[in-house]
Design goal:
This protein has helices at about 30-35, 40-45, 45-55, 75-85, 95, 105-115, 120-125, 145-150, 155-165. The protein starts with about 30 loop residues before the first helix and ends in a 5-residue tail after the last helix. The protein contains nine helices and no strands. The chain is mostly helical. It comes from Cephalotus follicularis. This is Zf-RVT domain-containing protein. Pfam families: zf-RVT (PF13966).
Length: about 170
Amino acid sequence: MIRSGNSSFWKENWLGRPLWFLACPLLALTVKEALDIPPLLDVLLDHPQKEVAKSIKLIEGQDKLIFSLAPSSIFSSSLFYEEKRHKANAFSWVKYIWNSFIPTTIAFFIWKTIFNGISVDQNIQRRGIPLASKCRCCLNSNVETLEHLLFQGDVAVNIWGNFSKALNLTP
């Protein structure tokens, strides 16, 4: 907020960027001093910059920086982060994974499984690392994929079979 005009004319963020340029000999010029020399502004500024300069009205008081994202005008790193970070669309089913009933380690495993982030041999190979693949849980040599690990492998089939017997589910 410009009041007395003691802020730097060149270094403040007027148009999403400062007005100054490296060859400018007047970097120490304040807003008040710049406004007192109108021909200087006509020579040094482009049209949008001139409009900014014309819109400045000085009043009594101290100049201060205003953080426009905060209602209090005081800078907040958390508000700045929220404004600048990339926000993805929220999934409606996420609340079923990230809740207090599911332990965090299990929730992370489920999350990585959904987004194919488990380090099975197939995913490692897909990232360009040469690797001979063999499932270490099976008697016959199968390629270790996420589907094999969770549903098709000998151990997975045995575990799912025990769960279906315990819950009286027929295959």
